[in-house]
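Throughout this chapter, every protein is written as a compact record of paired, labelled lines. An example of such a record is reproduced below:
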Amino acid sequence: MILISKHQLLRFFLSLTMAMVFSVNLRASHHIDCSDPLNANHSECAGFIDCNDPINLIYPQCQGGGTAVEPVAPVALFNLTPSSGPAPLTVTVNATASSDSDGQITSYNWSASDGQSASGQTTSMTFNNTGTYTIILTVTDNQGLSASSSKDLTVTASDCLSVFDAVDSQLTLTWVNLLSGQEISARYSNVVMQLLSTADSSLQFQVSSALAATIDQQPATADCVSSYEPANGLLIIPAVKASSEASSAAYNNVRMKIMARDELIFQLDSVEVSQ
């Protein structure tokens, strides 16, 4: 049996206590700072970094790990006004309802099934012939992602006969060809002629407004097209519908002679009553 004095026992416990303190301090001095990206792969830092948070994608352990944030494609939406009507039909398309949740839309491109194309957030297209057409909008965002949407429109045959409104004293010619001999030199639509006076029964009309049209814009039938040849000063209207608050009538082959070229004043020359 080995006898240990009280003094030796005290020295033993003091040595053991100092060793434990030294071990704790040594471990504390080697504590891993998991907020440092260089220590992100250390075993003590497992689970410390949330790789689902996009801000932590800089950490090595989140490169190729965690849930990557994928860019979101834009949403293509637009309004079409009007969506139907008689030819020629001009429609306005407006894509201000389109959006992009994680960026911005950088381009708006339009195409129609008849071959027309356009660009811009808002634009217009004209359809001259009857039928059903599809308009497609394609939007692209600043990350290069695209989305598309489409809408259909219907173009119907126009009731394009010229009309005399007795209430407003206006004669509206749907289409007028300006002739140079047998050739069309210009074309106009919605030519409005105001009745000047009926006091002397001369039935004189003066052109008050007109819209320039392209040569390829034309109605479905020849009955809609009036013609004016400056060489002989004669305006010929194939058919006219006349209406008032109480009655209506139809006329064919309405011929008007120009009376004042500078003021575009015409006088009714002859007319055939439609049966």
About this structure: The helical segments are 6-29. Confidence is low (pLDDT under 50) at residues 21-30.
